[in-house]
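User: Round two. Same drill as before: sequence, then structure, for each protein.

Assistant: Same drill it is. First protein:
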Amino acid sequence: MSNTSDVRTVDHLIIGGGFAGLCAAIKLSEDGENDFVVIERASDVGGTWRDNTYPGAACDVPSQLYSFSFAPNPDWSRSYSPQPEIQAYIKKVATQSGTLDRFVFDTSVEDATWDNQTQRWIVKTSGETWSAGTVIVGAGGLSEPRLPEIEGIETFQGELFHSAQWDHSVDLAGKRIAVIGTGASAIQIVPELQKTLQASGGHLDVYQRTAPWVIPRNDRTYGALERKAIKHVPGLQRAYRAGVYLAKEATVPAFTLWPGLAAPVQKQAAKHIAKGIKDPELRAKVTPSFAFGCKRVLISNDYYPALDADNVDLVTDPITKITGSSIVTADGTEREIDVLVVATGFFTTELPITEHVTGSDGKTLAAQWQESGMAAYKGTTVPNFPNMFFIVGPNTGLGHSSMVLMIESQVAYIRDAIKTMRTKGFDVLEVQQSATDAYNHGLQKRMKRTVWSVGGCDSWYLDRHGKNTTLWPRSTWDFRRRLAKFDPAAYRTTTRTGTGAAATEKASA
């Protein structure tokens, strides 16, 4: 397809207006790459932090790490930021960056296809069609809510919503509410619902498939003097950030390889259960049977006391079906409810956007990943998808630190790739299959040793093949080092006059 009057042409098209897309937009602008557009399906920036407005929504990464390194935020009110503050921060950065005029809101990407003839991406959206030299995908792994496949869920007649699509118009006072799931969102939601229902005579059922490990949330409010010092004392905020970062990096990556190192923390988590729950039978139900760290470790001070409250029941029997007004479990018990809250996570190992992206060989990315699971070179580029870069791609997730660190590392790599295209005269970059295979072989070899693989749990980190295609198995500084400079030797490069040299880099993880 060639350019016509009804196709708009840009150098770069960015998909998604969350942390990833915004970071890419700001850094491209700094490089003088101003011919770009950001396609965002919602009406505002923010991504995950725009959408997740459920009661109690907050970050489980310390505030000082949850901001761009180039835009520190001195206005955090506490050590773990609540959702409204994070969203306000993203909007402030976006406004001050001067890039919002290139954001196209309320527009979704319907199809992105590589045109071998023009060597450009043709991106059809719900508004217009674009021709782009490069596409940067910042849609994220927590963008598509996953509903559970339970018989009869479509017949439920009460109020039903996913945690990421909270319906604030529903009056919850005095209601019988069920929460399905006990993951990161659920343990923030449950205490808030428990308090609301206790004050209004309502009841809460929490449906648990697998008990998570939960440790204390060492959260505190920043005092007025401390906040003033962070804002005005030179270097203090940077010191805060460095201290928190080093503490995270010095401990967590190590015990993922040597689970025994986590024994003291696991004992602390067990004490946390004993402190929060009086009932021995309930304690047993919430005590995990797998190694600490195998699934995402959660933080909360009030989750266990909420479960122990008189107006809350923890249900561990499997759900067999949902009726118009109740949930039925395998033991035959039917529990009537008015509201059903689904906190069952997102499509993380089968990204929905991959069904709408077609590469140079005519196959969608979903089809390419169907047989062996998600895989990318340095989490950023994929064979058969030239000039396409992923932010928060396969094996870039973290279980211990801030994803903003990973996003900035990937954006730095993408910037250098685009600069290389400019200076070397390359029109097309496509990572070689051999480089991708070598990189992922080393990564998965290391992954087999981690607690995520040998810890005895079945988590959302693993795909249907049992392979961890979600997490990064090393430190964030190691990831940053690997992506500090673009490596053209791992790519096939094409110019308008022919094909450039293509050499396979010995990539390892």
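Second protein:
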Amino acid sequence: MIVSAQPRPIGHPGYSETFPALEESADAARKLVRTALAAWRLDDLTDSGVLLVTELVANAIKHTNTRHIRVVVSRPSERFVRIGVVDRARVMPEMVKPGDDLLTNGRGLLLIDALADRWGTDVYPWGKQVWAQLHCQPAA
């Protein structure tokens, strides 16, 4: 696995990698999140971060026809970790509505909404990034 680590103004590198849009890529995405959180000594966020990236990857693969996704793990500030999945589709994520069949579909964004302190979508001319932020306590 080749991990791209870019220096950021806050002193923490960002981690990103491009994967094929296949279910198997979720394993590599989880490893990337674990690597970033361990480097930042934020092991307490590992379970939530791994679950978030799993759902973000699954949504990008299931709801778009993109061939590749890019997973980005960054520290936009000392207080937050941001986990995002970039794809080339313009299809926006939608929360399920009351009455939707949650037994087979639609739980991903509900789970992301429950786990993340914030989540959203950044739209680009060529696609989008769906991201989720976790609050962290800076290492002493």
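The longest strand covers residues 68-77.

User: Perfect.
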